[in-house]
Amino acid sequence: MSRIARSILFGVPLLSLDEMLQRVAEVSEEDVAALAAELYDPERLSAACIGPEEDRFRSAAEAVSPALVAA
């Protein structure tokens, strides 16, 4: 019922199970990798820390992105 409601509320087509499985099967590893690279680009990350040890935070953040530490 929630799938039907979302379809009506958002004006998207209500897909059959076979149609949904076909769409999922059409997604390639390259598609997922490209989306992950866009959404989780280390240069676009931000971080915040609360605590007395700034060096500890900086060393942990550097492992994720040197740009975080440079900021």
Helix fraction, binned, reads 55-70%
Kindly estimate the percentage of residues that lie in beta strands according to DSSP.
under 5%
The helix/strand class is mainly alpha
Give the helix tally: 5
Largest sheet: none
User: Could you tell me the number of beta strands?
Assistant: 0
Rounded Rg: 20 Å
The overall average pLDDT, rounded, is 87
Low-confidence stretches are none
* SSE order, one letter for each helix or strand: HHHHH
The termini sit apart by 48 Å
Instruction: Categorize the overall geometry.
Output: elongated
Task: Tell me about this structure.
The chain has 71 residues and is mostly helical. The protein has five helices and no strands. The protein has helices at residues 2-10, 17-25, 29-39, 54-64, 66-70. The protein is elongated, with a radius of gyration of 20 Å. The N and C termini lie far apart (48 Å). The model has no long low-confidence stretch (mean pLDDT 87).
Briefly say what this structure is:
This protein has 71 residues and is mainly alpha-helical. It has helices at 2-10, 17-25, 29-39, 54-64, 66-70.
What is the topological layout?
Elements: H1 2-10, H2 17-25, H3 29-39, H4 54-64, H5 66-70
Overview features:
71 residues; 63% helix; elongated; 5 helices; mainly alpha
